Amino acid sequence: MKKIIFKSFLLLWTVLLACSCNDLLEEKAYDFVSPEQLGDSESAASQLVTGTYNTVITSFIAPGSYLYLTNMDCDYASGASWAFGNVGAGNPQGFWGIDHMWQGSYTLIHRANLGISKISAMNNLTPESKQDALAQLCFLKAWAYFNLVRNYGPVPIFRKSISEGEAMSQPRASVSDVYTHIIELLEQAEGMYSKDDSGFVAGRASSGAAKALLAKVYVTMASGAMSGVPIVVKGGDPNIFEPQPITHIAKTVAGYESFDPAKYYALARDKAWEVINEYTLFDNYMDVWAIGNRNKGEHIWMAQAISGDKDFGNTICQDYVGIFKEDGTMEGNWYGMRDHWYLLFEEQDTRIVDGVIHRYASDGISNGKVIYNYYPRWYADKVENKEVYDSQGNAFDGTEVYHEGQGWTLAKLTKFTFVTDRKQKNSDFHFPLLRLPDIMLIYAEAVNELNGGPDAEAYNQVNRIRTRAHATPFSGMNQDEFRSAVLEERARELAYEADRRYDLFRWGIYLDVMNAIDMDEHNVTKRRLERNLLYPIPTSEVNSNDKIDSNNPGW
């Protein structure tokens, strides 16, 4: 911790001179100033808040490590064995960014604490803007702690800035105490401007984002405390074409034993309902990802990005769908979803009809032509037989089909192509950190657990998502069936949005689901041990913090 703190407080803090999302995206001007030099003004407070928000980009999204740690360690994600040989294979210590989740979270917490200290002492702000600024920083702290407690279990809590006398070494607080602190912070964060207030800055969080994150916190606590209920997950042996329905039994997550599921499901239901009534679902699924719809509609909170910028761009497009080289071939395109995920969908579902790339350039050229790959494999067979046509009605030339073999065919998600310039390594994909369908499914899950089965509104929330994608609406399910159906719908709708690992974890079925696969079709090891339930605390932290004397079990 000391190393992080020294970086945060002894070095001059880089603050982006921007007071709005438009400023952030249109011009990047820097000034190297310490927080003490900012003064006492609306501009000073805004710069402190913006500088703290930038940490979400520079310490989480831009390096790529946050999404790698949250997306790759689950059942349906896969890729080349070299790309999944560490985190994706249960060996996180081999990953270059293994410590980034811990370090980035505490950097964010320390910067937020310092901002709270400085803004609290300011006298030249309107009451409304001061409340919003402080609430923004509380929200960011809560988000950081939510990441920490889900990935590391008990973690140190820093309630105030080191400059206010907080000790630099803190013991690990219990899971229960961390969640209590998260809830306290988010209740304060509800004092942020709403998205419709004149003072709201697009790209930042709003009071609705605080409510949405509270709903996620509550549902995590509630489901984490559950045990003994059945959950069916489709997967298992990758050599069987269709994913097999396997019944797993929920287990209480370590540290969640004291939580009352009924209490927290009720809180999740009520908070999710507030969010549902504030935000709007896009009518068409592909509109969700349109560049013009960023920070609008169902997007409750997105990580901002700047195309071509080494600090505020990101490699999400390159990593997940590839970027174009000058010769028309593809660079990147390493991560995708497995066949068993693709086969969860009905064939008419927009989320695979348009949401999956069925024809994409490879990194090779043959006879002067770019070689194309096709997904799924049975689609490639149709191309070879000239049964697939381009937009002009011409059959694709079967000779361009490039069979990469079973171990290389993956569903690549169209959402990640929505960037300004697909030739840029550092592109401007705005990653959705909080999205309305997530909250709608939380509502449905909570109602199902509280009522002993789904009611009309629980069905309505799930079916709004499904009918938008032209999928068959759910009906006629009992409580156990609906529980499994909602978890599966989350896997479909929220693919690669940093949710799947946490969903399996909070139900206590992560190990069972992963070990049912064993080795996937891409030769990626899915076998997991008890130690994989949590990530290892950085060795530097264990060595330097005299209040922590051991790492997580097995590390």
- Broad structural category: alpha+beta
Tell me the span between the first and last alpha carbons. Answer: 18 Å
User: What is the overall number of helices?
Assistant: 19
DSSP summary, beta strand count:
16
Low-pLDDT runs of 5+ residues are 1-32
User: What is the overall pLDDT average?
Assistant: 91
Main sheet, how many strands, which sense, barrel?
Answer: 2 strands, antiparallel
Beta-strand fraction estimate: 5-15%
Write the layout of secondary structure elements.
Layout: H1 2-9, E1 14-16, H2 21-26, E2 30-32, H3 42-61, H4 65-71, E3 77-79, H5 100-120, H6 127-152, E4 155-156, E5 172-173, H7 175-189, H8 207-224, E6 230-235, E7 244-249, H9 261-276, E8 299-303, H10 316-320, E9 323-324, E10 330-331, E11 335-337, H11 339-342, H12 350-353, E12 356-357, E13 359-366, E14 369-374, H13 377-384, E15 412-413, E16 431-435, H14 436-451, H15 456-468, H16 479-493, H17 500-506, H18 510-517, H19 539-544
Antiparallel strand pairs: 1-2, 3-11, 4-5, 6-7, 8-16, 9-10, 12-15, 13-14
Helix pairs in contact: 1-5, 3-5, 3-6, 5-6, 6-7, 7-8, 8-9, 8-14, 8-17, 9-14, 14-15, 14-16
